[in-house]
Amino acid sequence: MIKLISTNRKAYRDYVILDSLECGIELRGSEVKSIRDGRINLDDSFARVEEDGQVLLYNTHISPYSQASYLNVEPVRMRRLLLHKKQIKKIAAQLAQKGLTLVPLKLYFNERGFAKMELALCKGKKLYDRREDIKRRETDMAMRRMIKNRKRR
User: Fold this and answer.
1) Closest-CA residue to 2 (of 147, 129, 114, 138)
2) DSSP assignments along 46-111, one per residue
3) 19: part of which helix (H) or strand (E)?
4) Is residue 115 part of a domain?
5) Domain contains 144
6) Which of 12, 21, 72, 91 is the most buried (most CB within 10 A)?
7) Helix (H) or strand (E) holding 7
8) DSSP letter assigned to residue 113
9) Can you give the CATH number for the domain in which 113 is found?
10) HSE (side-chain half, CA atoms, 13 Å) at 83
């Protein structure tokens, strides 16, 4: 059973998601316990493929675990994402296209208890795209409301 810890709702609003994949995340010390408590923030975080063939995660805030005392690490630091070389090469080739970004969508623990992250290849939405989404959502809600009221009569 998968235990969902955190989602990046901002990513769904600001980006068009083209492709997603699951990857591991390299954590140190008490970060796992802090994540189990749900003390992680994925907003404004992104990933980048480095020259040495590693994928690094930036701007992810994991709050320090209170019982860890001196074993805590810096809350906002670069974290390595664990992917196969084939996956990294594929992602690097896709990122060479203009305007694509790697954004984390979800962080969860899988059946074996390992922290996994759903990483997505995204393209930024323009302001008019966001407005269209809002308009579509409002019309869908109005339709549901009308259908619900019609069933009551």
Assistant:
1) 114
2) EEEE-TTS-EEEES-EEPPPGGGGGG---SB--EEEE--HHHHHHHHHHHTSTTEEEEEEEEEE-T
3) strand 15-25
4) yes
5) no
6) 91
7) strand 3-7
8) S
9) 2.40.280.10
10) 27
Q: What is the CA radius of gyration of the chain?
A: 19
pLDDT in tens, the chain (153 residues): 788 999 998 888 888 899 999 999 999 888 888 998 889 999 889 999 998 989 999 999 998 888 877 777 888 889 999 999 999 999 999 988 777 999 999 999 999 989 999 999 998 888 777 788 889 889 999 999 988 888 766
Task: List residues bridging with 79 in a β-sheet.
Answer: 57
CB atoms within 10 A of CB 97: 10
pTM of the shown model: 0.78
Range of the domain at 121: 3-125
Q: Is 139 contained in some domain?
A: no
What's the number of domains the chain is made of? 1
Residue 80 corresponds to which tokens in the numbers above? 């390595």
CB 79 within 8 A of CB 27: yes
Task: Kindly state the tokens that stand for 140.
Answer: 């869908």
* pLDDT cut 70: percent of the chain above it: 99
